[in-house]
């Protein structure tokens, strides 16, 4: 980690990297690894959002609460739904049940989620 990099910057960088890696791995058929990286991208985006606003984010429940609260605040159910997709991608890492078609569609939805969460960061 760059000592000059803030927590918000670090988590933003990681979210963007994991999103790129997930897209590539899923396109190459590496479904288990790609699905976990989709979860990682969503989680890192939420960490960036929380860090920028001074919201605790060290625990999963805190990040989940932040996502659902932002969904309600913005009246944007797609945030809530994409978070649930990301959670299912995390479960897929352990259970390997998703197919290529599932993850191909999840990439776009989670990419949009990551963009929305990062756009909501405090300036």
Short description:
The protein is mainly α and 123 residues long. The protein has helices spanning 7-27, 31-53, 60-74, 77-95, 100-119. Helix 2 (31-53) packs across helix 3 and helix 2 (31-53) packs across helix 4.
Structural key phrases:
single chain; 123 residues; mainly alpha; Four Helix Bundle (Hemerythrin (Met), subunit A); 5 helices; globular
Topology (elements, then pairings):
Elements: H1 7-27, H2 31-53, H3 60-74, H4 77-95, H5 100-119
Helix pairs in contact: 1-2, 1-5, 2-3, 2-4, 2-5, 3-4, 4-5
Please provide a written account of the structure.
The protein is mainly alpha-helical. The protein has 5 helices and no strands. The chain has helices at 7-27, 31-53, 60-74, 77-95, 100-119. The radius of gyration is 14 Å and the shape is globular.
> Can you identify the CATH superfamily?
Nucleotidyltransferases  domain 2
How many distinct folded domains? 1
* Main sheet specs: none
Top CATH class: Mainly Alpha
């Amino acid at each position: 980690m760059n000592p000059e990099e803030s927590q918000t910057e670090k988590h933003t960088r990681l979210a963007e990297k994991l999103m790129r890696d997930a897209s590539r791995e899923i396109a190459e058929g590496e479904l288990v690894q790609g699905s976990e990286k989709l979860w990682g991208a969503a989680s890192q985006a939420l960490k960036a959002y929380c860090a920028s606003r001074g919201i605790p984010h060290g625990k999963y429940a805190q990040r989940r609460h932040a996502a659902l609260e932002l969904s309600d605040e913005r009246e944007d159910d797609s945030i809530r739904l994409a978070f649930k997709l990301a959670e299912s991608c995390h479960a897929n890492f352990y259970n390997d049940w998703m197919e290529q078609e599932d993850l191909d569609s999840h990439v776009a939805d989670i990419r949009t989620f990551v963009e929305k969460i990062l756009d909501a960061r405090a300036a």
